[in-house]
Amino acid sequence: MSSSKPSFSDYFGKLGGIPMYKKFIEQFHNVEEFEARPDDLVIVTYPKSGTTWISEILDLIYNHGDVEKCKRDAIYKRVPFMELIIPRLTNGVEDLNDMQSPRLVKKHLPVQLLPSSFWKNNCKMVYVARNANDVAVSYYYFYQMAKMHPDPGTWEEFLDKFMTGKVAFGSWYDHVKGWWEKKKDYCKLYLFYEDMKQDPKCEIQKLLKFLDKDLPEETVDKILYHSSFDMMKQNPSANYTTMPKFCMDHSVSPFMRKGVSGDWKNQFTVVQYERFEEDYEKKMKGSTLQFHSEI
């Protein structure tokens, strides 16, 4: 790997102390000024935590399991990524403003950067958290295929960046804890990726209850089937293969790579795992948040 490749500082700046893509920062005033609607549903995750999965499930719920309706467009158009604003390429805020209600709004922002209109309108929010080990591995492969990132370097180098929060959207630890603390005060459902893998039907029932929606059993089963990893991986409207190659290069690593829990064991060395666990204990000390590192 050539050392002349663009560095972290070429791609990222700081937004409220959080590492963020420079292009996002330049346009962030549009995000801050965004006018939420009371029936907006906000989907929040730290990157690589099941964002596309929960988005597809919710779009299927909103469309009563109508699979053809959910193929009307790519997932990133059906559930716009609000803070993704790259002039002449894509604009999450504009996409949302053009949408009819009720809207599904995707975000990766830490809790302190969420636009105030979502709090004012008491919008419902669904947060999905995934264990740190698997997120680190998935993020490493995503950095390689999504061209908005600098070269991640070796796995060892990237793991250091992840542990110190020197990645887009900052520290995983602060992100999951920040949203966990807020769940006491607002209308939020906090889900875990590992629970979704273990018993997806139970988690879909939680979503339906949270949204005050009632769907027949056969519709729930249909949603389960069409939101499974195997079905989504084959679905061009869900698997990001419609993205241009200069944005995402699936030949480097597919966007939908494995979709399992516990894959970190194939990546971490024993030494890396021990160092990671020691650091994890320090950073998560005092939090009531508990994760499964495998199922």
TrEMBL record:
Keywords: Cytoplasm, Transferase. It is found in: Cytoplasm. InterPro entries: P-loop_NTPase, Sulfotransferase_dom. It catalyses: 4-ethylphenol + 3'-phosphoadenylyl sulfate = 4-ethylphenyl sulfate + adenosine 3',5'-bisphosphate + H(+). Its EC number is 2.8.2.-. It is an enzyme of class 2 (transferase). It comes from the Eukaryota. Residues 38-287 form the Sulfotransferase domain. GO terms for molecular function: aryl sulfotransferase activity. GO terms for biological process: sulfation. One of its GO terms (cellular component) is cytoplasm. PANTHER family: SULFOTRANSFERASE SULT. Belongs to the sulfotransferase 1 family. This is Sulfotransferase. The gene is SULT1E1.
